[in-house]
Design a protein that fits this description.
Strand order of the largest sheet: 2-1-3-4
Number of strands: 8
Shape: globular
Order of helices and strands: EHHEHHEHHEHEHHEHHEHEH
Largest sheet: 4 strands, parallel
Mean pLDDT: 95
Strand content: 5-15%
Radius of gyration: 18 Å
Number of domains: 2
Structural class: alpha/beta
Oligomer: single chain
Low-confidence stretches: none
Helix content: 40-55%
C-alpha cells in the first residue's frame, strides 16, 4: 500500500525523531511511504487566528501536492483534524467543496491507520514500565483518535497505562492561546503536571507536538522526573525499531 506522509510543522521543527519513528512504523507494517519534500503547514494556526482566505490557499496547495489517490497519514490528531474536518467547513458552498471532500476523506491519523487499516500488532521488547497518556483537545474532540492511540499502548505487554484523573482537560497550550494568555496557560499546565505526577509513572505520552512542548518545557522548569515522549517514538522503541 502506498501512502503519503504529512510530517507537520512541529514535527519538522521539534520532533524529527518522532517523524522518523512514524515512517518506520508504517514501513514495518507494510506501507510504502511517500514524503513530499515541498509540504508545509496544514493551516490550522492561521485558521484558528481568523485568517480564512490565507488558510484556503494553504489547503488548496496541499490538495495540489498530494494529488495521487493515496491515503494521507498524519502523526498528529490536531493536524489530522484540521485536514479531515476543518477544511470541509472552510470550503462549504464553494466551487472547491467536492474536491475538498475527496481530499479530506483520504486523511488519517497515524494511530487509527496503524490499528484499523494496517492491523498492526505490537510485540513489546522493552522492560516493564508505567506510563500515562495526555489527550490533546483536537485529537479528543475533533479527530476522535485518542482511543486508537491508547489501544496501541495497551498492546505493549510490559507497559502499564495509568489513566489521568483529569485526562480530558487542556494542558494550556492551545496554539496562540498560550502566548495571548500566559498566566492562564501557566496555571493550566501546572494542574496537568500535578495530575501526571500523582500517577507515579516513568513516562507521559502524547501524540501531539504542541502539547508535548508545553508540558515538557514546564516540567523541565519544575525539575520533574517524569519523561515526556511522543507516542510514535515510544512505540517504535518498544518494538525494536529504534
Amino acid at each position: 500500500m502506498k501512502v503519503y506522509f504529512f510530517g507537520t510543522c512541529l514535527g519538522n521543527i521539534a520532533y524529527s525523531k518522532a517523524l522518523i519513528s512514524s515512517v518506520k512504523l508504517l514501513q514495518h507494517f507494510g506501507a510504502t511511504v511517500i514524503y513530499k519534500k515541498d509540504q508545509s503547514c496544514c493551516g490550522q494556526p492561521s485558521l484558528n487566528s481568523g485568517y480564512y482566505e490565507e488558510t484556503r490557499k494553504i489547503a488548496l496547495a496541499n490538495i495540489a501536492l498530494f494529488n495521487e489517490p493515496y491515503p494521507i497519514i498524519v502523526p498528529s490528531g490536531s493536524c489530522a483534524g484540521a485536514m479531515m474536518h476543518d477544511y470541509i467547513q472552510l470550503f462549504e458552498n464553494t466551487p472547491h467543496a467536492q474536491e475538498i471532500q475527496e481530499f479530506s476523506s483520504r486523511v488519517y491519523d497515524l494511530s487509527e491507520f496503524l490499528l484499523n487499516q494496517l492491523n498492526a500488532k505490537l510485540l513489546d521488547q522493552g522492560e516493564k514500565t508505567r506510563v500515562t497518556w495526555h489527550s490533546n483537545c483536537h485529537a479528543l474532540r475533533v479527530t476522535k483518535c485518542t482511543e486508537a492511540s491508547k489501544s496501541l499502548i495497551r498492546m505493549l505487554e510490559n507497559v502499564d497505562l495509568i489513566e489521568l484523573e483529569r485526562e480530558e482537560e487542556c494542558c494550556g497550550f492551545g496554539g496562540t492561546f498560550s502566548i495571548k494568555e500566559p498566566e492562564i496557560s501557566k496555571t493550566m499546565v501546572e494542574k496537568k503536571i500535578a495530575d501526571i505526577l500523582s500517577r507515579d509513572v516513568e513516562y507521559v505520552i502524547s501524540g501531539d507536538g504542541g502539547c508535548l512542548l508545553n508540558i515538557s518545557g514546564a516540567m523541565k522548569k519544575m525539575g520533574c522526573p517524569t519523561k515526556p515522549m511522543h507516542l510514535y517514538e515510544f512505540l517504535a522503541q518498544r518494538i525494536g525499531l529504534e
